[in-house]
Amino acid sequence: MMETAKREKPTGRLIRLPGFTPGRQKGRFYRNSLIIILLIASIPGLITGIVMYQLVVGRMENEFNRMHQNQIENRARNVDDQLAYLEMTLSHWAFEPRFGNVLRTLDFVYYFNETQEIVTTLYVLEGSHPLIKSAQLYLQEPKPILFNREYNELKDDAKIQAYDRYLSMGNHVYWTDWVSSISSEPTGSTENSLLHTDASNALVLVHKIPGENNNPFGALIITLDNEKVASLLKTLTPYDEGLTFLMDQEKNTLVTGNPGGSQQNAAFEQQLKKEVALHEDSTSFLFKYEDQTYSVSYGSLSRIDSEWTYVSAAPLTSVTSPVKLVSKIIVIASAGSLLLGLMLSWLASRRIYSPVARMLHLLTPGKHEAQTHPKLDEFQLLEQQWNELTSQSITAHRQLQEQLPHLRDSFVLQLVQGHLYAYNEQDLQKRMKNLGFEVEGQQFLLLQMYFTGYARLQGRFGSQDTGLVTFAAVNIIEEVAESYFGQISVMNFHDLSSAMLVIAPKDEQLKPQALLWGEELVEVIGRTLKMNVTIMISRPADSLHELPGIFVEMEQAVAYRSIEEGSQILDLEDEQCFRRAEEAAYPLGLERELIQAIRLGKPEEAERVMDLFMSEVTWTGSTEFQVQQMMLQLLGSVQHMMLQTGVTPYKLFGGCNMYERLSAIREPAQMKQWMMAEVLQPYVQEIEMRSQEPLKQIVERTMLYMDEHYRSEISLEGCADAEQMTPYALSKAFKQVSGMNFIDYLTKVRMEAAKQLLRETTMKINDIAAAVGYQHSYFNRIFKKQEGITPSQYRDLWFGK
């Protein structure tokens, strides 16, 4: 019986069929068959090799050249996008209220906080793009002032005239390659700033301020890093050889991708300019120079005030070098195929007498199948084996169908994220059909879900379990959506957010269904996961190509949603859902308290003030964008304080871009946790590590002495004598450790004590002045300088509350 028969392993021997003897018929038929097979195998190979070499190689050269041109165009668009982003970024900052008409009359020395904010803003602007080398603000009124990384009053007429030139040049926003200052780094003194005016090829972007005023009194000046711009421009020539440069409307070279080139390159560049002028009717041409043929591509870059032209010249041999390799490969492959065909033909001729036996040998598991099944002939055995293979194929197909949902979701994710932009609408619909979607005569609706309240789940889930929570939420979304929509595809972003594509007939009203589904989903998520959901509903789309753009709109719009507690259902087409609330005032006082607590190494006090800060910035009606901008401003202030106290943020944070990491957080509670855990605690730990240093101990003793004896006469010399130091050494150590000057700290201590007496007692102003170590007239003057109002006004204002 078949069930009990032992199957032997195949040994590679042929099954001998009845009436078949392999060794008998090797005469004329064998020789004729061998000759025919050799001819059949060799002639097509020779013809194919010749045709491929003659036709394919020529076409490949044209195709490689075309691909090279497309590559240059794509890279040129990238350069254009980089410059356009710089223009947009500078325009954004130029229209900021802080750069408005208020700067005409602002006393920058008196209002040092506003001055520090401008310097910090320029520091942030300088770090916002890798091409920016320096960012400066020049004010002509109320007096010539230059901001770079510090506040500088210009006294030298030559310097003033050089910066005034920016106000007289160009339109309101313009590009220039005229550089007024080759050093934008602070040197500690305005007199030490090095001014240099020349016509170098560094690019400068200028935006006069105010941004909305036709009578500017200042300018925001961005100077680009010439080496980085040259490196970016060098990408237009993707080979080691060649030349690329950028020129303006007057055919003057702005930047070259080969800085410091030889005289030969300069001559080549001049010749290229002449050839470009002769080929204005095309965007690419071939140019022969010194026995070398170059593929030249050029095009225009429309800038905000002019029209630039890029020129890229690459040796044609570099462009078509893969064709030479392909030619050799074709020749080698053709020869190899011919030899292989001859050898296989010889082997096939020896086996041509036993096709059925060979088939049985390949398809049956043993060599004695015919003896095991005597009632079955060879074809019946082949049929039986074919049925088994068919069964296995059906099983494999079923497994493929099980994996199909994952393939569908993966394809839809790539579609909405814009990774399939190269496909046209017909190709996309065809691929959707292959994945089991019905897309003809259908409309498409995108829904995006953001899950908030994760900070409340820290008892149930850890900080690294966001992917697990998102996975559970996606399963709930699929279950709830099955009863509302016919065709869906849910995308899991693994970061407490997901999206869903709904496909329905065009005559169906999708928005009402989506709203009902959203209400049920909010209830189920809240009951099951104890989290809130923000659901954003897009406008219906008639084509698949519209989905990436809609997805980008939704990603941008979510930043303007309200951060109020609870779930939200937002309609992308309803502007009321994204109206900008009045911006809350930045809590500058709480920022100062927070920085002071951090500087003194008081983490508990810092956390308390941080809670108050978050309460201020997350007032009712605030948007995610507003909260994020205030947190970014706080991060900048904290990092500035770190620099003042001698701690380098770059080393402290391991080289991480903390602005980028903060921008990726959407929920205010998580922003606060991140700020405490990733920014403030490492700094406090670093300060504590330094607390054992003798210098810090000396400064702390001095500060403690000032806190306790501020009522009496205190001098830098007296404190230095007490610590057996020179006044200069103590002043330098005090500034390095505390971030403040000796006299500034003493003034701060006395002012705080005076304000406390004004608030909590009815003492006379003269008595309060004496109690904090000041004479009456000097006390009034210093109090108004520090607080902006007189002591009497402060007391009236406090009790008026």
Automatic annotation (TrEMBL):
Transmembrane segments: 34-56
Organism: Paenibacillus xylanilyticus
Record domain HTH araC/xylS-type: where: 700-797
Family matches, as InterPro entries: Homeodomain-like_sf, HTH_AraC, HTH_AraC-typ_CS
Keywords, comma-separated and alphabetical: DNA-binding, Membrane, Transcription, Transcription regulation, Transmembrane, Transmembrane helix
Protein name listed in UniProt: AraC family transcriptional regulator
PANTHER family: ARAC-FAMILY TRANSCRIPTIONAL REGULATOR (PTHR43280), HTH-TYPE TRANSCRIPTIONAL ACTIVATOR RHAS (PTHR43280:SF28)
GO molecular function terms noted in the UniProt entry: DNA-binding transcription factor activity; sequence-specific DNA binding
